[in-house]
Amino acid sequence: MSVVVETGALVHDIGNPPFGHHGERILNDLAKDIGFEGNAQGLRVLKNIEKKSPNHKGLNLTYRTLASILKYYVPYRKSRKTEKFIYKEDYEEFKKRFKEMDVFVRTIDVQIVDLADEIAYCAHDLEDALASNYFTIDQFVFLLEQKLGEDQTLEDFKEWIEEAKNKAKRSKSNDDYDFYFRRELLSIIVNKFIEDIDIVELNEKDKKKLGTDQDQELGLGHYKKLAGALKKTIFEGVTNSDDIILYENVGTKVLTRLFALFMNEEYNRESFLMPIEYRFKKDDTQSDKKRKVLDYISGMMDTYAIEMYIKHFGTDPFLEKYDAAIFKKGTGKKLIECLAQNFLHK
């Protein structure tokens, strides 16, 4: 069991596209007839795209291993607004397999992976946001109070902060203090949430979202509301910053134009602009072609997607503004300058 859970945790984000969750929304908007979703794409990567042997598609993993990342067992339907889903062909395949194997959805493996992901989101993303100065801990608590009000878990969280501050007082400098405070707070959050894991009741809304008929699952007990508030507050605090807004605007432009470029069969003649494994076949439908373009684009890193954009469309002031913002944060040599030199060498 531990090997399955470790594998699920390792690959659960493998389908995430460039520009994160924003990129996920953009790609889904570009192909509404077939849909795009990061978890669904992760399953597709393991089952179809990555190759271990010429004799079969995918990595030839067991169905139990694949089910360990099956976070949402809900089929995509164009007529219904569903944010989280798996592709229809995968849903039908798993529906048949689960019936044959008498397996309940969701498996214990994916419940553990999902919980670990939620705890990591709350703890590590808060640490990263504090380290990147998106907000101070006092500002964060102020925002958290708007969501939790007088809930007892807010007082618990404030006590964790004081505990982390007291442990960090042994530091020898301000920088050390900030670092150790963040690390101590992360450690406290993780430990408290792990201790809070229990078998919890699922309401009808949760069951519909997850695609399960089970009434109970592993989950956070006392701190479920706190975890939800932490995630929302971190998300709002980070996404409202000017550099993230700029980052998402760049993502919109890059992904939209790359998708149009690869779908344009006059420019992308015989799909030669894409690697051979993504190229169109004679009997491919328009939906098949869209899926292959989505497969290709979603497998790119942010920097590679920008590199492809520059290769086909050139640089523009919008990208240069984004590049300047990154450079200002001290990441070293400017991205566009590096990419331009790379193409000159080619």
TrEMBL record:
<feature type="domain" description="HD">
    <location>
        <begin position="1"/>
        <end position="122"/>
    </location>
</feature>
<protein>
    <submittedName>
        <fullName>Putative deoxyguanosinetriphosphate triphosphohydrolase</fullName>
        <ecNumber>3.1.5.1</ecNumber>
    </submittedName>
</protein>
<dbReference type="InterPro" id="IPR026875">
    <property type="entry name" value="PHydrolase_assoc_dom"/>
</dbReference>
<keyword id="KW-0378">Hydrolase</keyword>
<dbReference type="Pfam" id="PF13286">
    <property type="entry name" value="HD_assoc"/>
</dbReference>
<dbReference type="Pfam" id="PF01966">
    <property type="entry name" value="HD"/>
</dbReference>
<dbReference type="InterPro" id="IPR006674">
    <property type="entry name" value="HD_domain"/>
</dbReference>
<dbReference type="InterPro" id="IPR006261">
    <property type="entry name" value="dGTPase"/>
</dbReference>
<dbReference type="GO" id="GO:0008832">
    <property type="term" value="F:dGTPase activity"/>
</dbReference>
